[in-house]
Structures are given as C-alpha cells and as structure tokens.
Amino acid sequence: MNWMTSRALHPIAVVLLGAFAACKAAAPDEGPAVPHVTATTGVAASGPFRETITMIGSVVPRSGSVALLSAPAPTRVANVLTVVGQAVKKGAPLVEFERAPFEARAASADAAVQAAESAHTRAQRLVAQGIAARKDEEQAAADLARAKADAVAARREAQLARLESPIDGVVTKMNAVLGASVDASQPLIEVADPRALDLLFLVSPEDAARIHAGAPVTVSVGQNSDAAVIGKTVVREVSGAVDPDSRAVSVRARGSDLKRALRIGENVTAEVTVAEFPKAVMVLIKALVPDGEGFKVFVVDEEGVSHQTPVKVGGRTATSVRIAEGLKAGQIVVVEGAFGMTDGGKINGISDDEDDAGGDPAPAAKATTPKGDSAKKPDAAKKP
Hints:
23% of the residues lie in helices and 39% in strands. By secondary structure, it is α+β, with helices and mostly antiparallel strands. The chain has four domains: 36-49 and 278-376, Beta Barrel (conserved putative lor/sdh protein from methanococcus maripaludis s2 fold); 53-63 and 195-276, Efflux pump adaptor protein, beta barrel domain (Elongation Factor Tu (Ef-tu), domain 3); 66-99 and 168-192, CATH 2.40.50.100; 100-160, Orthogonal Bundle (Helix Hairpins). Strand 12 (216-221) and strand 13 form a beta hairpin. The longest helix is centred in the first third of the chain and has 29 residues, at 100-128. The protein starts with a helix and ends in an 8-residue tail after the last helix.
C-alpha cells in the first residue's frame, strides 16, 4: 500500500518542481525575455528610376521565315536524308517517299487526258455534222479540263515524292520515320531561317497593357546570378488577344543585332522598360512588408527605433521599388529582417554607410523587438 501511494505522488512532485523552476525563470530581477532579430538597414534614395517588367520567353522563328513540309498524299517514308539541327540549302533533299504509287497515279492521269481529248474531238465533229447536241460538246470540254487538272496534280505529287527545302535554313523539327506510313495532314519537317528570329514572351494581360511596340528591352541568358546580358532590342508587337490555354498575352521582340547568335528554342530573360521617372524615391525591394492589401516599411529614427510606415508602391524592378507615397529620400529603413520587426523595435549600432536602392544594404545591425507593453514603454521600471 505504501509503495502504491509513493508511486502516485511522483507526478505531483514533478509538477511542483516544474512550477518552481518556471517561477525562478520569471524572477522580477531578471526581467522578461526579449527576442532579437538580425537586420540590415538601407537608405531611401532619390534619383532617376526606370520601371521594368521581367519577362521569360524563348527564341522562335519569325513569321514568313519558316517552312512546314508534309507528304503530298498518303504514302510511306522510303528514306530520311537529314536530322534536326542540320543546316540545309534551298533545294536540298530532306525525305524521300515510295515513288511507285505517285508514278502510277501520274500515268493514269495522263491516260485520262488523252481519252478526254479524243472524246472532246469526237463531240466537236458530231456537233458540226448536226448529229449531237451542243451540250454534249460542252460536257466533253469540261471533262477534258478536269482531266488536265488531275494530271497536273498527279505530276506535282510525283515531284513531291522527294521533299526538298524551300529556303536556306536549319532543320528544327523532324517527324519522318523510315518505313512509316504518312499522309498529307501530318507535318513531317520544319525548316527555319536562323537569321530571322523573334523573342517570344508570355505576360499577364495587366502587364501587356503597359507594354507597347518600340519599348526598349534588355535581353539576357542564363539563370539568376549566372545570367549574362547579351544586348538590347525593342518590342516588335504585343498581341491583341489572350491565349485560351495559358491565359497570357504574347509579346514579340526582335532577336537580331545581339552580342551572340541565338538558337531556336533557347530560353531567354528580358526586362522591358514601361515607365521612366527623372526623380523618384526608391528602396530595395526586400524592405517591403505585405500589410493587408498594401505594403509597409520600417523606418528607423535617430534613436534607432523602428516605426512601421504604410507606403504606396509606384512600380518596381527586379531589385528595387519606387515609393509613390509614405517615404522621403534619406530616411533609413530596415531592409533584411523587416518581416521579423515590430513597431517600436530597437536597432543598435546603425551603420553610417548610406547606400541607395540600387546597391547593397548597410552592414547588419542587431534589432531588438520587444513584445507587449515593453514595446510601448521600453524604459518602464522593473517590478519590485
């Protein structure tokens, strides 16, 4: 019985010890625990601001400089003479089909023309003799014309039994397989002129409304920090319709006159200028903190105290943002660590290095973000 009682009292003892430890940790002499946030500060700069929209797209052949070839009629592939990526000249053979069916159709069409010519001649003679009606001659003339048209089509099909490149270019698609059956509705080969290329981008309808033909575009290739600018171009056209599948609007820019030749299908990134301001207040985009449907920044006063300040964003680039309302040039704002700040947070050791929105933020400073009443009264006396 005593053993059972002793075992039952152990949990109570644990609870009491935990409560004693908690009271000791919250002793008035030690004060409440204050969280710390590592932050960096920067200076709201004033100067010219170029608002841009970042677009991601690919290199495509320009309209009118690409040829899509298919079989002239149902047949079978007899020989494939090229591969994707191969440069070809105008008239170069690409694919050969079985010729026997085409030659047979051409011979049959020629025989039909001869028969129609004989029938037409006979009808003319009978009409001249008054034996046949005029409508018989007209019908024979129509049959002869149809036979000649069929013969032209048959001879054209026989010529297309070997597909040849209609332009100087590069083979960009090849769907022909040796021995496979094909028909006229099946695209087999695409040849494009690599000297006439466009940059095709897809943007939202909202962004498309701000982009216009002739707008300057800076083109780069690569990802993130490895991206390299390869030149500048201009917007060629902005589509007037929304793509039903992607729900985006296509924007085309010229792909010529760049530092290096682009290849069809290559991915590119571009920044298109949509507005320019000769004098604007700007901060690094990392200083923005979402606040409901808007944004706010934390402004640091002379005593190192941060104050949340609602701002109106006027436009942005990949790294900086223009502040239309709520901030003045020269004010110090929290750049990194802003999401962990609270109104009234204390920042110690603010750097004197003032950097604008286009450069790096000032060196890291330690930010103290008190909670509750201590945030409102940092100098409140301790309880006895």
